[in-house]
Each structure stands twice: as C-alpha cells, then as structure tokens.
Records
---
Amino acid sequence: MIFLFKILCLNYCPITKTTIMDVLDFITILIILAAFFLLMNVKYLKLPSTIGLMIMALSLSLFIIFGEVIFSALKLLATDLMTEYDFSRVLFQVMLSFLLFAGALEMDLGKLGEEKWMILILATLGVLISTFVVGSIMFYALPFVNIQLDFIYCLLFGALISPTDPIAVLAMIKKSRVSKNLESQIAGESLFNDGIGVVVFLTILHIAMSGNSGHVDFGEVGLLFGQEVIGGIALGAIFGYLGLRLLILIENEYTEIEVLVTLSMVLGGASIAETLHVSGPLAMVTMGLFVGNKGRSSELADAAGEYVYKFWHLMDEAMNAILFILIGMQIIVIHWKVDFILAALIAIVVVLFARLVGVGIPVTLYRLKAKVPKYTIRILTWSGLRGGISVALALSMYEYYKNGTMSEDTVNLITVMTYCVVLFSIVVQGLTIGKLFAKAESNTPGPPAEKNTPE
C-alpha cells in the first residue's frame, strides 16, 4: 500500500516530488521490505536469511530497472530511496556500530582467548598481505580489458575488499555446523579485521588524496594507523569497563535501565570515536567483549540480564535484514559498463586468490608453534565473505569525485568491482560453505561439533 501511495504521489502530485522521501518514509519502506522478504524466505526460499534477503532485493532491483518503461514511477521512487540517503553514512554511523556490538556480545571470551594469536595475525598480517596482492595483480591485469588504473587506486580497492564482513560471516556461522574453536577463529577474525581493514583503507586514501603517492611519509602513516587502531581499542575498553561496572551495580533489577546503558555505550562511543578520529568498529567490538557473558566468571557473566541479550539479538536480526536489502538494491544506482563488468570478473578470481595467500601465509607461520587442522586454510579462505562494509567504503569515494579529487571512471570502476565481488561472495560462497564445513567436520576425529543456533 505504501508503494502504491508513493507511486500515485510521484505521478500526480508534483508539489510533493521533492519532499516525498523523508526519513520516516525511508525507514518504513525498509522495514516493510525486510518483514515481507523474511516471510517469503522462511515460507518459500528457505535459504540462509542474509542470502535470501539479498537475492530478493536484487531481483526487485532488476525488475525495477528492466521494467522502467512500464513502471517509471517505481524506478523514480527506488532511485530516490537509494540516492537521497548516503548508504555509507547510514552503515558506518548507525548500523555498523549496532551490528558489531551485538556480534561481539555473542563471542565466547574463553575460546577467543585460546585463538587470540591466530586471530591477531589473520586480522593484521592477513589483511595487509591481501591488500597488496589484490592491488598488485589488478594493476597488471586491468590493461588486458583496456583499463588503466593507478597503482594507488588498485591498492585502495585491495584495502576495501580484503577485510571479511563480520555481519555476513556471523550470520553464516550461526546456521552452520562448525567446531567452537574454528567458529572463534572465523568470527574473531571477521570482527577485528573489519576495523583494521577500514583503517588501512583510510590510510591509503589519505596517501592518494595527498597527491604524494610516489613519496610516502611512513612516520605520518604509522601515526595515523596507530591513532585509529590503538585509540579505537582504548576508547572501547574505557566505555566497556564503565558500562560493565554500571551493569553490575544495577544487578539485573531494572532491565530497561540495562538496555539503555548498553544503547548509551554504543551511540555515545560511536559519536566520540568519530570526533576523536579513532576506529569506531574496533571500539564497538571491544565494548561488546567487555559486556558479553560467554566464557566469563559467574559475577561478570550475570552483569547483563537476559533481556539485554534478547534486545541486541533482535537489533542484530532486524538490521541484518535491512542491510542486505540495501546491498541488493544498490545495483539501481551503480553505473555499469561492459569493460567494468569484465574487470569485476577478474577481481572475483583475484580476491579469492589474495584471500588464499592472506590466510595461507599466517596459518603456515602459526603452524610452527601450534597444531592447526589441515582443512583450516580452505575453510578460512572460502568463509571470507565480503558484504556491506566493502560496498559502503566504495560508495564513500563518490564524495571525492564530487569535489574533483577523484575521476568519475575511477570511482565507478571500483564500485562495480566491489559490488560484483560482494555479490559472488554472499550468494556463491554463502550457499556452498555449509558443505565445506560438513566435509571438514566429517574428516575430523572426535565427537561431532555442536550445531550453532541463536540463543
């Protein structure tokens, strides 16, 4: 009904054309789409929710694009929806903070501690290796499809596409049969390499925009990197500790106050992180680990009542649904060219290879000091899903095109490559990773792994 009303207004109410899509409309349409698509997926498609939602949103977008002649008002409405609001700002300033905090709440701190060194090298060395492998190969591969892209922009693409998306990864492993240790490796890496990846992207972007890509001031780069990473973790630790002490003080007597305390931590922490120019994602993950109850002593485990976890589980599911609908509908506003699509096909293969190298080298090094199951590299490579963070980083570059510091073709090319890699990652890898998990677990001696289900 809302869509029909909007279409009628767009066709017959010219006065409202420029003001029809306010914030309430934007949120309402997204929630209605999320509820409808989730229902269709549960009843008919029966796919993992993130994959089913993205496929349906993508199908709706293609229907709108190819049916433009008949449904011109619908195309106008959809374009208005996707262009009036900055997807990158919506994700980074609101959704990402909520989703990362909710994801970190579910982490088992004990298992995370057991896998800390593996997670650390994957989230740092792995991301850096992947960034330079993608950037270097794409620099030499793009001329084969008649595209010339400066090396610094190839590195920029490598930086935004290298971190795995914690939102997509966590949604996937919740539905998979996988050992707790491997779950901690996959989830922990995705939570932390997201923050590291954003910092690497911002660092390379700073170099590119300074115009001195041929002469890099490593002191300045190191300072920027340290400020973002160390500052983000420190901010998250301060807010997390203070929030945890408040929750202990409340003693589960007032559930509404507990929820408000955690909301204040997330919103206040995100705002301060942006003001101080430190990593908001790393701050959110650190706060979530402080408050989470898994793997903690009995006193700390009971600090937050069950309604806090139910609230954040609901936020996680709802925002997950909205996020993947937004990703699917981004196809409406992306500028497509044949040579860009060919470049994207190359990028899919290159990114997978870079992920294999970025995982293979750290895991091989880790094997020198500890035993690692033989299937770990394959699992980590194929489970490295890309998602909304990569798309948001790519779309954030349009700001630099608008102010004249980056060419339109460069931004469009990187956006198309990013979108196609993300689409392949979520749909193809997401649909097949369960079989790889099952095969790996069947070849592992010992009792079968417990199936992960949301609490």
Note: The first helix runs from residue 2 to 12.
---
Amino acid sequence: MLSRAVKTCGLGLLVASALSAGERNPATDWMAEARIGAFMHFLPGPDTFGRVDSFDVPAVARQLADAGVRYFVFTLGQNSGYMNAPNAAYDRVSGYAAGERCARRDLPLELSAALAPHGIRLLLYLPCQTPNRDLQALQAFGLSEKPVNGDRKIDLAFARKWSEVIREWSERYGARVSGWWFDGGYAHVGFNGEIAALYAAAAKSGNPGAVVTFNPGVGLKRWTAAEDYTAGELNEPLTVACEGRWLEGSQWHVLTYLGKTWGRRDTRYTDGQWAAWAAAVTARGGCVTFDLGPAAHPSDGPVGTFDATQLRQLKAVAAAVGRQAK
C-alpha cells in the first residue's frame, strides 16, 4: 500500500522453502476460525492530528460487534509522521516532544478494552520504515532523504532502531494485541530476512503468541521465513481462489478493500459477489480482512465510525460465511 507492487521475489533470505504439515503454525488457528476481519486506515496528519482525541472508540466497537467480525486491524500510523498512540522510543530517536507526533491518547489500548467483551481481537498496522514524509524523523533514524519509488532504503542499523519503537508498543499492549501487519517490506528498499526476524522478535516481545506478516506489495505469496500468515494485499480479489489453508506454511490470508480503493466509504461489488467469494475462501481454511473507510470528520458521523452501507455489506458477508461454516 505504501508504493507500487513488487513483481518478483527472488531473494534467498526472503523466500522460505515449502513447509511440511508438521511445521504449520498453530498460532494462526484462530485466524482460520475467525474467517472474516475488518481493517481501518485512520491516519492523522498535521491538520487532522486533533481527530485522534475525537475518535469514538465505543461506537466503533459496537459497529464491529454488530457486523460479526472476529478481529480488527488498526493503523498506528503511516507516512505523515503522526501516530495514534504514544511511544517514547520514537520521540527519543526522532527528537520530537511527547504529544508532538505520537498522540497522548492511546487508541489501541482503548480499542483493545472496548473490543474484548465482544470477543474481537485487535491487530496493529505499521510500516517497515520511518514515516516517509517526515524529514526530521528520517534523518534522526539514519535514512536517506532520497526516495526510492516513494520509500527509503533501509538496513540493519535502521531496523535495530525501528525495532525498539515496535518493541515499546508490543510490551505495552501485551496479549491485548493478537498480531501485526507490517507494510512496505519491499525488496527494492532493502528489506530482507534478517530485518524481518528483528521486527518479528520485537512485535512478539509483549505477546509471544502474536502473529506477524510483512507486505511485499500487491500479490499473494509466502514472503519471509519470519511470517505467520500471508500479507495478501489484493486489488482484485475475486479473481483469486484459495486452494487450502496453508501457502508454503503461512496461513492463507487476503487483505482487500470494500470500497473503490483503500479508505473509501463506498462499495464496489454486490453483497452476493463478496459473499460467494469469501465463503469459498473460508471453506478452504483461508481468511479475509476487509478495509472500510472511517468517518474523518464529524459531518460524516462520529469520528472513526463506518459508513452504514459498508457496514451493512460487511455484516451480510460475515453472516453468509457463518451460515456456510455451519
């Protein structure tokens, strides 16, 4: 999602050999059982940072429970440099004061508490590199100001610093967070197996049972030896069939969007089209995460809440998958 797709994956450090049935990871059992989850791009910027304080956590939790999803993926931040939770490690390295770039309000902590009574797990989204539009942070973390396809080259020295940021969040949330979806794990930025292992260890420091994945770009593949499930970013998912729960040892998983693109609040397929595809996927042990667009302004509804039409469609798909599973 951070930049254009990586077409090939010929790096020996990245691509693991096919795993035998005995090596399939039971930590992902809950994903196959959950079947359907939701994803939200809530990305504050310099003019919208205050919306973190307006985010309606109880309303979002009620909507997700009503939709019938079993897990929710929430963004810590992305490109702007503004984060949805405090992080002293990030502040220390970047040189920003507390609350200047990392919100004082801790949305993941609040979301985990609100979702738990509904039996909904929380997962977190974070890029594999420092926010690429924040030059102060880029310099402080030792990255080049020169972009490569919109991103910066990374190396082990950088990854060790970024791992400390990841580790702080992981150890704060502990078992409240069930997994991580790392974006921008592209070959062209220097992402490799050693970096993946560093990030995975940091993400699991607070919860050894957490699942992780690293996005290589649009496509469906096992990308790293450190991953538990496929990142599975797909733009046209209805053309992709699930042949079984495991893809070379990774839990088969797809992340796609209900609207016309990421973060949109409209719909692009009918309930029937989505339901038929999702039911076929989950019948074979795969799972699907749907991106929905949040209300970014009070004029759209309580900040963070989903559009009624998208929510109705997600509920219809989850219900169809649930009926198929019985």
Note: The chain has one domain: 28-325.
